């Protein structure tokens, strides 16, 4: 579809008045208006605040900011606002690794111990670089530890110290036999890059990617730096929104410490369609799927029948980090891109992207549904978990299409209640989730987590067992069950 683009500034009215500039089609253009309407609905129903860029057939057709980059100063989001990327960082790490492969300093079939002498030999000698890139190494992910963020995430760690303490656990499975998403593996890849090059990960990033692509609004995020147009991160509270907790950025490192803008990710996307950063044969390896359709830093999927863009190959990755979540979808056949950054996590970015794809392919997008956590959270504060359960049942009876009633919605509320120390209310909500979704591993895992958090060990064990009955491949449930039964 063809669009004539120009700069359009509109006044957004509502809870906060602000000027927001959208690079879009002519105001009369139906597609551009549909996209703006859809995302505005997500901002209204689902607390979305962020920036979006859409390119189609190798041309930017829409970019715009929604809501506030900083709520305390009433500063609006815009396409040039910098957001933390979370796990989208991994695709940059994989590119840096492949650049070292091109130089001959790393081999994909080489072993971890070949490049990181201080790593434990008994496991490091079994794990290949390819397995680290594809989340098939078997190394436990440090973020799977339910106590990690509360106990460790605010502290600075040198790379070697962190690898030894938090990325060197006993293998969960034989390398190469299973897929388990693993932040430890990508942290280790960053350590390997530093060791073989003699340079910092940040220096390699600038030299190998950011400077060649003129990505001037991207980099490694340091809390102390004065960074113009950096968005603040927020999270949903039971009664509204609050500042996200502090995270020392040495912790995510090569697995999640970068920041960027939607505009810079467009430059990145353009480069990935060419061979500017890497020879074509090696670049293709980045996008060759391994177990569970994960390649090197990317998920590869064919859009199924019934979804907008059916049959297209989608190269995609999301990210989540304190106060931010992000999504990048590359439709390589059409040379199109969808980038969504959010600094108040809550809305489903996958659902938003699916709606955008529907518009691009001239279909009707689904109407966004209101988030349960916003309304039930207020009820819990006022009347407790039982009152929220009663409200849930009434809403489902009287307005079944107006809210997102899936198991993730109640799990989100339960998790938030646990964070606030309301263990009893969390268990009440999560028992409802199991009742509503008796075939959901998410429901049983969440309830088991709540029981474990509350010190109710037998109940936690029983629910982890139930989750594993439904999905024997649930590695997180396996690990937590093992820990509970051994201690």
How would you sum up the major sheet?
8 strands, antiparallel
β-sheet strand percentage: 15-25%
Q: Which strand order spans the largest sheet, edge to edge or round the barrel?
A: 1-2-4-3-15-14-13-12
Q: Assign the CATH class of the largest domain.
A: Alpha Beta
How would you name the oligomeric state of the polypeptide chains in this document?
single chain
Just name the CATH architecture of the largest domain: 3-Layer(aba) Sandwich
DSSP helical segment count: 19
Question: Distance N terminus to C terminus?
Answer: 60 Å
Q: How much helix, percentage-wise, in residues? A: 40-55%
**Count of folded domains:** 2
What would CATH call the homologous superfamily of the largest domain? DD-peptidase/beta-lactamase superfamily
Query: What best-fitting shape do the alpha-carbon axes yield?
Result: globular
Q: What's the Cα radius of gyration? A: 22 Å
Number of strands: 15
CATH topology of the largest domain: Beta-lactamase
